[in-house]
Amino acid sequence: MPANTSRVSADHLRALIDERLASLIAIRHDIHAHPELGYAEHRTSGVVVDELERLGIEHKAGMAGGTGVLAYLPATTGEGAHSVGLRADMDALPILENTGKAYASKTPGVMHACGHDGHTTMLLGAAGVLAALEHRTNPVTLIFQPAEEGGAGGQKMCDDGALRGAGAGGLGPPVSRAYALHGWPMLEVGQVGTRPGPLLASTDELDVVIRGRQAHAAYPHQGADPIVAASHVVAALQTVASRNVAPYDSVAVTIGQINAGSARNVIPSELTLHGTVRTIREDTRRLVRQRVPEIIEQAASALGCHAEVTLREGYPVTRNDPDETGRLMGIASEAFGGERVIVLDHPSMGGEDFSYYGQHVPACFAFVGVRPAGEASWPQLHQPEYDFNDDAITPGVELLCRLALS
Predict the structure, then answer these.
(1) What are 274-293's pLDDT values in tens digits?
(2) What is the C-alpha to C-alpha distance for residues 132 and 58, in angstroms, rounded to an integer?
(3) Closest listed residue to residue 90, CA positions, set 156, 41, 160
(4) Which DSSP state fits 242?
(5) CATH number, domain 202-315, options 3.40.50.2300, 3.30.2130.30, 3.30.70.360, 3.40.640.10
(6) Cα separations (Å) of 319 from 87, 227, 288, 358, 398?
(7) Do 384 and 317 form a contact (C-beta atoms < 8 A)?
(8) Is the dihedral of CA 38, 43, 48, 53 positive or negative?
(9) 248 with 344: CB under 8 angstroms?
(10) The whole model's pTM is what?
């Protein structure tokens, strides 16, 4: 689907981005150095508001629990048939940074390990470029949301009316289509990857308490060992993927935390497990939500323990609208060349709360490359060595602007 950006030449668009690039890099480094966890992005939200005020863009702060920011640019020509929403996330992760960068996190144990500093910067860059254009064919809503990392900030922004327009909690007309970009280490800078339909998994949250009977480590027959029970539970849960779900389907059941015990010579009375359950298909999700508690409870019971299972519904599948995916891929091909636009073979088992926006309007989520050209690898998301690549800012801003103008 070709872009309708005839009033704005590629050279002019890139010149406007180049003019702002140094300041955008400075903004990203500042945000990176001062990371904030979900719903605590007060300083980051302030940076966003300050930049929007400097640009003279109408905005609304204090959304989604206090740190979400919404901004609005009207069309200049009255030609726009669509109101476009562009979204970025602002929160960081509870990870100790190990990049060694001069702008590394100044907050011990918190860092931008998923590149949200880059996403926020790209959207601020798009805001500045779009505001500078004489012709904007569509009204544009800019969404700076908190708490993507497990806090469902996207859902709260939707609930607060970010997509509904003025008079219903938002700004301007209601959003009719929405897009978001995410830095992706598996792609080179200048590459774009996405797919129609499911792109990212649902993310249900699993909490388990296994209760046994405390005993001396030398006399295990006098107790009921929840650690042994938990070992069998973790192993048995892997049969969900291997024996309950078809080989061509996708499911991941992962236990990320095990907490138990107070001494090496004491069998504890209880243990807790915390994990995540990821699926792509809704029928598979229902099956897995049934099988996971059954397996845990029965495996624990077989070893003389009792399990209490809590399985909470998390983010839905991030599902790309086929028409909007075609639009984004056509625009990206026009901007960067068709060979730089990749239709991904299969969904990722990661999760994203951009999924909530797609429940209200046609939407597309896409990956933009951050791996330097010629490099075989780049630190992966949620690793302490990860840093969004400044070279990805320019193509990210350009793609956002083209989507707004299409």
Answers:
(1) 999 999 999 999 999 999 99
(2) 14
(3) 41
(4) I
(5) 3.30.70.360
(6) 16, 39, 20, 7, 24
(7) no
(8) positive
(9) no
(10) 0.94
